[in-house]
């Protein structure tokens, strides 16, 4: 306000100019803050995403371990049953007299058990491969989402930078216009003062000339 006062403006004019500048700056700042995201909000969003990804990875590891342990325990139980059967029956067949029909039934049971074990192993291997593929796909999906979020954050920063640049340019333009207006008013005031001083000097000259004429008239009459 003192700057405006020194340029020749009155107190009321200075207050109007300063109020206009404050409104312009506040409006531009409101427009910027409306589209901006604070650093704290960005960090919170990134922490939430990383926490979600960590939770998914942890769940996948636990699921993979639990399923693998269950399948392995099931296989061990089946293999143990077959081993007991083989130990207590097949090996003792030579020691005891066993009818041929029972031998055939035992061989069929043995074949069925072996087929079942082979089938279970194949199913387990297939399930493990499917689970690994699913885990890889989920990991790839999480990586893509994280990359998209990073891209969005970078784009948001770029938009904020562009908005700040435009605002700076607008403020510079308005300040330049205001300086031009102030210079114009200053020049008008100088012209006004110069004209006023010139008129006063001309009036003083005519007054002085009139007084001289009056004095000369009185002098001629006395002669």
Can you walk through the features of this model?
This protein has helices at 2-6, 11-35, 39-90, 100-222. It has 223 residues and is mainly alpha-helical. It has two domains: 1-33; 36-222. The longest helix has 123 residues, at 100-222. The two termini are 66 Å apart. 0% of the residues are buried. Mean pLDDT is 71; it is low at 1-5, 77-82 and 87-98.
Features of the shown structure:
mainly alpha, rod-shaped, disordered N terminus, single chain, 2 domains, 223 residues
Task: Provide the fold topology.
Elements: H1 2-6, H2 11-35, H3 39-90, H4 100-222
Helix pairs in contact: 2-4, 3-4
Family: Belongs to the CCDC90 family.
GO cellular component, one term: mitochondrial inner membrane
Pfam families: CCDC90-like
Count up the helices.
Answer: 4
Rounded average pLDDT: 71
Distance separating the two termini: 66 Å
Secondary structural class? mainly alpha
Q: How are helices and strands ordered from N to C?
A: HHHH
Helix % is over 70%
* Largest sheet report: none
Organism: Callipepla squamata (Scaled quail)
Pfam families: CCDC90-like (PF07798)
Subcellular location: Mitochondrion membrane
Family: Belongs to the CCDC90 family.
């Amino acid at each position: 306000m003192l700057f405006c006062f020194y340029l020749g403006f009155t107190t009321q004019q200075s207050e109007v100019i300063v109020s206009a500048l404050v409104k312009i700056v506040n409006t531009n700042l409101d427009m910027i803050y409306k589209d901006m995201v604070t650093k704290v909000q960005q960090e919170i969003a990134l922490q939430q995403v990383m926490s979600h990804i960590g939770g998914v990875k942890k769940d996948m590891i636990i699921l993979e371990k639990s399923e693998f342990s269950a399948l392995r325990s099931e296989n061990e139980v089946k293999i143990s049953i077959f081993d007991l059967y083989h130990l207590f029956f097949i090996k003792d067949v030579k020691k005891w007299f066993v009818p041929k029909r029972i031998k055939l039934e035992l061989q069929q049971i043995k074949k069925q058990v072996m087929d079942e074990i082979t089938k279970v192993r194949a199913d387990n291997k297939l399930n493990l491969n499917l689970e690994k593929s699913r885990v890889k796909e989920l990991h790839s999906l999480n990586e893509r989402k994280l990359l998209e979020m990073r891209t969005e954050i970078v784009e948001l920063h770029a938009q904020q930078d562009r908005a700040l640049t435009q605002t700076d340019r607008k403020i510079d333009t308005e300040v330049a216009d205001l300086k031009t207006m102030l210079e114009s008013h200053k020049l008008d005031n100088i012209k006004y003062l110069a004209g006023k001083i010139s008129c006063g000097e001309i009036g003083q000259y005519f007054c002085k000339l009139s007084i001289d004429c009056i004095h000369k008239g009185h002098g001629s009459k006395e002669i």
